[in-house]
TrEMBL record:
Residue span of region Disordered: 95-129
Pfam families registered for this protein in UniProt: Ribosomal_S13
Cited function: Located at the top of the head of the 30S subunit, it contacts several helices of the 16S rRNA. In the 70S ribosome it contacts the 23S rRNA (bridge B1a) and protein L5 of the 50S subunit (bridge B1b), connecting the 2 subunits; these bridges are implicated in subunit movement. Contacts the tRNAs in the A and P-sites.
InterPro entries according to UniProt: Rbsml_uS13_C, Ribosomal_uS13, Ribosomal_uS13-like_H2TH, Ribosomal_uS13_bac-type, Ribosomal_uS13_CS
Similarity comment: Belongs to the universal ribosomal protein uS13 family.
This protein's name: Small ribosomal subunit protein uS13
Organism, as annotated: Candidatus Kerfeldbacteria bacterium CG08_land_8_20_14_0_20_43_14
Swiss-Prot/TrEMBL GO biological process terms: translation
Residues in the signal sequence: none
Keywords (A to Z) from UniProt: Ribonucleoprotein, Ribosomal protein, RNA-binding, rRNA-binding, tRNA-binding
PROSITE patterns per record: RIBOSOMAL_S13_1 (PS00646), RIBOSOMAL_S13_2 (PS50159)
Length: 129
């Protein structure tokens, strides 16, 4: 039976990889959770007993913010920055990179200038740049 934690059905991959499918759990946190639950990182979620799944579920849902709560918090942080008019809020509002990346050459997809073939979307050489 597949393990269901935080509303996510874990895929039948090694536990340290499968926990990464939960929003807010990366490789480092997955390793920490497995250590706290005293489980083998290579065991697969389908091989876990009901007690082990419950132990994992308790650790993840009670000690960490994951899935819906974390997504809500992130969206509220972005909304707050937009409302106070901070630089980061303005970048979010304009759909541009927020963390100081250059925009002259990179971030085409964020700006909406996707080039599907060579030369499309570019200024012609006769045009002034």
């Amino acid at each position: 039976m597949p393990a269901r934690i935080a509303g996510i059905i874990l895929p039948n991959k090694p536990l340290k990889v499968a926990l990464g499918y939960i929003y807010g759990v990366g490789p480092t946190l997955a390793k920490l959770i497995i250590t706290k639950a005293e489980l083998d990182p290579q065991i697969r979620p389908n091989d876990l007993s009901e007690a082990e799944v419950n132990r994992l579920r308790d650790i993840i849902e009670k000690q960490y913010k994951v899935e819906g709560d974390l997504r809500r918090e992130v969206l509220l942080n972005i909304k707050r920055k937009r409302e106070i008019g901070s630089y980061q809020g303005m970048r979010h509002f304009r759909n541009l990179p927020v963390r100081g990346q250059r925009t002259k050459t990179n971030s085409r997809t964020v700006r909406g200038n996707t080039r599907r073939t060579m030369g499309s979307g570019r200024k012609s050489s006769a045009e002034k740049t």
